Predict the structure.
Amino acid sequence: MPSADVVGLYSCGPTVYYFPHLGNMRPYVFADTLRRALRWKQIPVRHVVNITDVGHAVADSDTGDDKLEVAAAKERRSVADIADFYTRAFMTDMAALNVLPADRYPRASEYVEQMIEFATRLQERGVTYQIPSGLYFDTTKSDGYGTLALMDIAGQREAARVEQVEGRRHKSDFALWRAEEPGARRVMRWDSPWGWGAPGWHLECSVMSMALLGEHFDLHTGGIDHRELHHVNEIAQSEAYLDDGDPWVRYWMHNEFLLLNNAKIAKSSGPVPRLADLVEDGYHPMAYRLFLLGGHYRSQLDYTTGAVDGAQTSLRRLLSRIEPLRPLPVIETYEQARAALTAIADTTPADADADAGTDDAEPGDKTALDYLELMDEAISLDLATPRLLAILQESLRDQEITPAGLRVIVAAADALLGLHLNDLDPAALERRRSTADLDTAEIETIERLIADRTQARKEKNWPRADEIRAELDRLDVQVTDTPTGPSWHLR
Ligand SMILES: [Zn+2]
């Protein structure tokens, strides 16, 4: 259990039934900025991000199939395989985006016994009722239900859910335990006092956060969509469970939506791009991170190809400007940066002949110290990353700052931004051409060459096949032979 000096931070994690898309990344880059800000202030943190591998039903509802079971049936793989595979995909994206790893990534399926104990205590407290579809939390028994979402409680109780559940007393009541329907055996199932079944979705976050961070903790983050339902329900059940009159969590922080061409992702018709799609199109993950940090976490941000293209160009320019300053010093905290800047002032020539007793600091270092204060103010002001980026740009244009001072400022900015300013090669930001950049004539040429190559191979005309392969190489075309014929993409 963490000590009282360590900030407990819980971030609602991914449901690992499919690849995470670009919108799914925003909550973690936001939580990462918060982590970096706490590190900057020398506040130790214990960070927990859950992995939802059971309990999350399709459409966030209380009845119906689990997202993972649906995915397993569709992909003809086991639920465990699905969970492992998409957990790895999530971790790969987190690493590519330079998100600091959490201390723990608990899996919901490993905490079902504790969830049953938790629901049992709620039942003993008289805030639940049982119906054929499971055990439900009676939200009228929760004082201040919905306060987090600034809800009109009566309105919310009636309007929150469209789903019809037989026997549910109020529309805002939610499942703690989802009992198996007769004849519909679940894949992931546990025995409980309320019959065989699976936990409700909201239960896992209350149980795992308390298990790993203590009954009360400091910070809970998540996407704004959770503020209306998931977090409201987490609070209701946790405060009923603890029943000590204290707020369960001290601070809640929510990031706004990422929009896709000005529309909510949930309402978008086509597939939502993933980080891998962006990379395939010639963009660097750090360009996407810069795009996210360019908006404040509490503002909606509109994703367009043009916007990420712009971010890639500005990151390349930023890196070209920073490259001559490398190597950068290692800075993680405000105090380290301040100490480094003060040390520069102590060794400057102006100070060397200051035995006479003048205590004027060297002006260049004074400039750097001013930038450090501005950066500290920006991150302290509700994580104002757009402001932080503007201060960094300004310091790079400033003629008054010394190179040593500038190196510290850039390193300090990157401690908060996490953009790999210390080691990313600007050349990695040169956008490669992708299939989307080819015109019809170029695509026709490539497809004709591939057809000729297939023909040559069929005729066992190996010299001709090799000749075509060389021609395709010259065009940067990578051909892969598959059972259904050759496929290609640009290298
Ligand atoms: Zn949660």
